[in-house]
Known about the structure:
Helices cover 28% and strands 18% of the residues. It is an alpha/beta fold. The strands form three sheets. An eight-stranded parallel beta barrel has the order 4-5-6-7-8-9-10-11, surrounded by five helices. A seven-stranded antiparallel beta sheet has the order 1-2-3-12-15-18-17, with no helix packed on it. α8 (194-209) crosses α9. The chain starts with a helix and ends in a 20-residue tail after the last strand.
Amino acid sequence: MIYRYMEHHVRNVTRAALVCLVMIAAGVAPAGAAVSPPVDHAGRWITDARGRVLVIHGVNMVYKRPPYAPDAIGFDDTDAAFLAREGFNAVRLGVIWKAVEPQPGVYDDAYLDRIATTVALLRRRGILTQLDFHQDQLNERFYGEGFPDWAIQDDGLPNKPDYGFGPNYLLLPSLERAFDHFWANDPGPDGVGLQDHYAAAWRHVAQRFHSDPGLLGYDLFNEPFPGTAWEPCVNLAGCPEFDARLSAFNARVIAAIRSVDPRGLAWYEPNVIFNNGPATHVVSGGDPHAGFSFHDYCLFEPQTRSNTGCDPFDDLVFANAEKHVAGTGDALMLTEFGATDDASNNQAMVDRADRTRVSWMWWAYCGCNDPTTSGPGTAQALVIDPSRPPAGDNLQAAKLDTVVRPYPRLVSGTPRSWSFARDTKTFRAEYTTARARGRGAFAAWARSEFMVPARQYPGGYAAQVSGGAITSSPGASVLRVAACPGATTLRVTVTPHGVSGQSCAVRRRSSKRSS
Length: 515
């Protein structure tokens, strides 16, 4: 099972004031920033400082070759503007440990300056950033990327031949041994434990970014592989023994981050075999600001399989993720899926995410000369070449037509359901005014926002709102809805044609100052 997967896995108020100052200085109207920072969570729900539920539709942007910065491949404000226009509100941005700490204890702040530039241009477009310490097969020695050369200890075991991304995890003893040394926190060349170095590097990054109003949090370690302990993980019950070691690692890294950022979301991942259906036993160590970041890739070759064969496994991955956060109380987000041109799989995945009310990040924005993928880079991409304008034949239009869809971006209450019927272009959502934390409800006229992308509604749309009033302009890309006085449940329906309607008139504020 793991082999088949590996074969195809291509993979507070203070800040609110700061965001206004930053955006004014950048010449961007504060009204364009829908989210009140900082981002936190209420159980499985991601929330903003006002307690509104934030739903994420995002993409991954990870450049895996030196100098490991997205601007080097051409990702710039044009791409950020394109993402915002298509309705995406977050990017999982690759930060490569090898670039952060090229020598033990020596940090490259010029590299972090480049990352900060990308974070800033995304923020100006209203896009949040999840910083992701990304690795695939650890290092270039194993035909991957992520770890500094000095952090690799493989005991001189052979690293050839190159079996390709995925199989190398299972067939290169040197790669497995290097993982073993890391999970054991064995000392690096300066006598400091490898995990201790890793945690300190995260502390340095968090020190730099913790006050950024566009921060969605920190993804601690991309796709942890158990090393030689992988075989016991290949069963539906999972592997408690390795997950305990992974949990201890999470606790170490989160403690380092907490020394400089007491509340930024710390997103931890299960071991990579979770992606195929086994359960997880990993935890964050009880941190109150933690999120569960999971991935879902089908067991079968994405270009040739029938979607029917994938559905049971993909359903199981989602079910395991929901069960996990129901027990831990952590936030929930699918941070990788896709990486395929298979339209049926992509459609099934975004429908599944809607059905289960799960936020997501598509893999990936671009192929970007990716060294760790078993298929062509264009199979991953939404935009083929970020150095060219994101338009025309530089777009993977069929995939965009599938993954770009309406959704409840920001909810003053708690979502009950949402769905999008692609054939009729009908979007439906239902939510209550009850706060996601379970204490009280939002007041009358509290506003929620729904993304209504022009890609799905090029001729405009009609909106019917039960229990609320429409406060946005006709045809606006963001449909804004205010709760009527006394309403406890609101329902929103969007169609390409018809007449818009609402349950109450919008309250207008007097232009005269009362005496």
